[in-house]
Design goal:
Distance between the termini of chain B: 18 Å
Distance between the termini of chain A: 83 Å
Strand order of the largest sheet of chain A: 1-3-2
Number of strands of chain A: 7
Strand content of chain B: 5-15%
Oligomer: heterodimer
CATH architecture of the largest domain in chain B: Orthogonal Bundle
Radius of gyration of chain B: 27 Å
CATH superfamily of the largest domain in chain A: Winged helix-like DNA-binding domain superfamily/Winged helix DNA-binding domain
Order of helices and strands of chain A: HEHHEEHEEHHHEEHH
Strand content of chain A: 5-15%
Number of domains of chain B: 4
Shape of chain B: globular
Strand order of the largest sheet of chain B: 1-3-2-6
Number of helices of chain A: 9
CATH topology of the largest domain in chain B: Arc Repressor Mutant, subunit A
Helix content of chain A: 25-40%
Structural class of chain B: alpha+beta
Number of helices of chain B: 25
Largest sheet of chain B: 4 strands, mixed
Radius of gyration of chain A: 28 Å
Chain lengths: ~230, ~525
């Protein structure tokens, strides 16, 4: 085993075995994408037996040269990365993921803050929402414009806010004509919860079996348990 | 092309109203398309007499229209019969039509139309005989007042003269194709080919002037005809009038047949639907403004599925708003503000100080909400966001992009998308990318045209189910319902209370679902 000092190396990799060196080089070359252990074995120039690979990986981890990260596309698989890199958005899922799952609490908090600011401002542009959140000091770390945009888009999909274009007058005074703005969805279904439609108000509308229900079939309106429950006064 | 449950629902309506025999003939025409009497007999295996009687009933009730086609090589082809699917659907809406009438006209008008709906078509004499047979003391019916009532209804386009009994349908050459029907009232868009049903209905319609005119035998009533006939030259018209008077109005009272004009009622229901939708989205003020705009412009509408209303200025709108009791408290600023709100939602188009209702937009939003509601209730909140994303984007999106934008877990998104696809709510495409490694991507899309047809079929299915369940429940408690009130004690009374609530819930659900069917099929 050679112990060569590498003056320009940026890792304490001076006590690596040849096998460890091979494996470490492959993993490090993948930078912030990391690599699945099985893929890594395929990329090695030599065919190493499994027990050697496992032992080397463990050793590299103990020397704090590599770490295990979660790849949200394949959570069950062991994914390795050099310690100096942060997992890319592609494998971590981005700002909204934490340890491979959506950080639902965080998302809920950001959604609620954005909605609060939009209601307060009555009509808000993305910049307006962003400034308003910053001033409120609700978050320790500043949210990026992209994060705010993603959350606002989700609020539109949730039908809690609507997207409108400024006409430059009335409530849009001070907003350039044509600029995209957001407003709270006014009454109707009570904003957020859509008003139940006619089809959705009856058992058939929400029935998962509607495609196999027939007038005289095994599943039919006469035998339907959802109807029976609905009509159970 | 009719959907499966559209056909089943229509057949069920006809069975309930006219029995199995008539329904069998109707179903044959629904499934096979227009047929001659011979072919109906062949397919249904009924006797000639039975087929004839069934067709007569269906024609009388405006559910079937006869027609002939021109043969290039000589004599006319045999008479064929085409079913009028839309008119069968209207049969469950009669109560809605009468409600509209009762809000705009007096009781005599309502009763006259009630007769027309019950009997399908009547002459003035038959209307008079019917009114006479049920007249109450102190409320005698006379022919003149009945004629006046009829004129009122015809002028308002709620009643019309019956169409030609066997119009000749001209074949459309290939070059003419859909272009021939440009501007035709039944084609949805320019270029969309008309169905045979639509072509026959149009061919059978009398000229507009004739369609909405009442023959009278009093000279002073000629003025009424002048109001109705706007495309007849004066010389012709005078000659026509003289001939009519000479031919004796009495004979016409017995020969000219009238029927309810479903188009008029559907147009009114469309307006009402738009007003209700605006009220739900905005407020009463906006609803009053829309209602006023409709009041001022509805007479200019040429067809049911009008895209936009005639443009109006702010002052014209305000004048109309303050005519109604509800609008009397509104100031000009209030009206202006409502118009701005309506404009924000694109319900009203504003350009150079004139305002025009965008019916298509209001209806599109209402339809979206109906479908999104089903998705939300059936598949959950995550699916709701996914569906709305795909519906708004209108193009193919990849699974990861969908899960990122909608904040759905990467492992959950494919399952939801697959379920929506399996149930016909989404289209799916596979994209294989070959590079260092072959990767497969799944792309998803909402195709409105296909989906709307699918949703409408589900609505027909649900309408049929509601109807079958009502019959089943009432049948089960038939004896109880026939029991006199004093014999219903203890648990019997409880069961009676239950069946009453069941009936109210099911029947009101049927009416509400029919509003949705109107939204997707007729509006």
């Amino acid at each position: 085993m050679s112990k060569r000092k590498r003056p320009d190396s940026n890792a304490p990799s001076d006590s690596l075995t040849d096998h460890e060196r091979l494996i470490y080089d492959v993993i490090r070359s993948k930078q912030d994408m990391g690599i699945w252990t099985r893929d890594m074995k395929r990329e090695l120039r030599v065919n190493l037996p499994d027990n050697i690979v496992t032992k080397s990986i463990k050793s590299l981890q103990n020397k704090s040269l590599i770490k295990e990260v979660v790849n949200i596309h394949s959570k069950g698989k062991k994914h390795l990365m050099a310690v100096e890199f942060e997992p890319s958005k592609e494998i971590s899922g981005g700002a909204w993921y934490s340890e491979g799952s959506l950080d639902t609490e965080f998302i809920k908090v950001v959604k609620s803050q954005c909605l609060k600011q939009i209601i307060k401002l009555k009509v808000a542009t993305l910049e307006g929402i962003s400034d308003s959140i910053k001033r409120s000091g609700a978050f320790k770390v500043d949210l990026t414009k992209q994060q705010i945009e993603e959350i606002v888009r989700a609020l539109v999909l949730d039908n809690q806010i609507m997207e409108v274009k400024s006409n430059g007058s009335g409530e849009f005074t001070n907003i350039p004509v044509g600029k995209v703005c957001y407003k709270n969805v006014s009454k109707g279904g009570g904003g957020g919860e859509p008003k139940t439609g006619s089809l959705a108000s009856i058992p058939c509308g929400v029935c998962p079996q509607i495609n196999i229900c027939k007038p005289d079939g095994v599943i039919s309106p006469k035998t339907c348990v959802y109807y029976t429950k609905w009509l159970d006064f | 092309m009719l959907t499966e449950y559209g056909t089943k629902h229509a057949v069920h309506v006809i069975t309930n109203h006219f029995g199995d025999l008539v329904a069998k003939v109707c179903e044959c025409l629904l499934r096979k398309g227009p047929l001659t009497r011979q072919n109906v007999k062949r397919y249904t295996e009924l006797s000639d007499e039975q087929v004839k009687n069934a067709l007569l009933v269906l024609i009388q009730q405006n559910c079937v229209q006869a027609f002939t086609t021109e043969q290039p090589d000589g004599p006319k082809a045999n008479t064929q019969y085409v079913v009028l699917f839309d008119n069968i659907l209207h049969r469950v809406r009669f109560a809605k039509f009468l409600t509209i009438l009762s809000q705009e006209f007096d009781q005599q008008c309502v009763e006259l139309v009630q007769g027309l709906l019950e009997h399908g078509r009547l002459t003035l004499k038959q209307m008079f005989d019917r009114a006479k047979s049920s007249e109450k003391e102190g409320n005698l019916v006379d022919l003149d007042s009945l004629r006046e009532t009829l004129v009122k209804l015809v002028t308002a386009h709620y009643v019309e003269r019956c169409p030609a009994s066997e119009p000749l349908l001209m074949p459309i050459s290939e070059e003419e194709g859909p272009a021939r029907k440009k501007g035709s009232k039944s084609a949805k868009k320019i270029g969309e080919p008309e169905t045979i049903e639509q072509q026959v209905v149009e061919a059978a319609l009398p000229m507009e002037a004739m369609r909405f005119s009442v023959v009278t035998n009093v000279e002073s009533d000629v003025g009424e005809k002048e109001k109705n006939s706007n495309n007849v030259t004066p010389g012709e018209k005078r000659k026509h009038d003289v001939l009519e008077l000479d031919e004796c109005g009495v004979a016409d009272e017995q020969s000219v047949v009238y029927r309810a004009n479903f188009e008029g009622f559907i147009r009114r229901l469309r307006h009402k639907g738009c007003i209700d939708h605006v009220r739900a989205h905005l407020d009463d003020g906006a609803a009053n403004v829309l209602s006023a705009m409709l009041q001022a412009t509805s007479s200019a509408e040429k067809k049911v599925k009008t895209k936009n209303s005639v443009p109006l200025s702010l002052s014209s709108i305000y004048e109309e708003v303050i005519k109604s009791e509800a609008g009397r408290n509104m100031t000009l600023d209030h009206v202006r503000a409502s118009l701005v709100q309506l404009g924000e939602l694109s319900f009203v188009d504003a350009s150079s100080d004139s305002y025009s209702i965008d019916f298509e937009k209001i209806i599109e939003i209402a339809q979206n909400e109906e479908v999104e509601s089903v998705v939300s209730k059936r598949y959950g909140r995550d699916a709701y966001r996914i569906f709305r994303l795909l519906s708004k984007s209108g193009r193919l999106l990849e699974t990861d992009k969908i899960s990122d934008t909608t904040f759905v877990e990467k492992k959950d998104a494919p399952k939801i998308l697959y379920k929506l696809w399996k149930d016909g709510y989404l289209l799916m495409e596979k994209l294989v990318v070959t590079g260092a490694r072959q990767s497969q991507f799944l792309l998803w899309k909402v195709n409105r045209q296909i989906l709307w047809k699918h949703v409408l079929d589900e609505m027909f299915h649900a309408a049929l189910n509601l109807s079958l369940r009502v019959s089943y429940e009432l049948d089960r408690e038939k004896e109880l319902l026939n029991l006199p009130a004093d014999k219903r004690t203890g648990p019997l009374q409880d069961r009676y209370n239950r069946i009453r609530k069941v009936r109210i819930l099911l029947e009101s659900s049927q009416m509400k679902l029919d509003d949705a069917i109107l939204l997707f099929h007729d509006f």
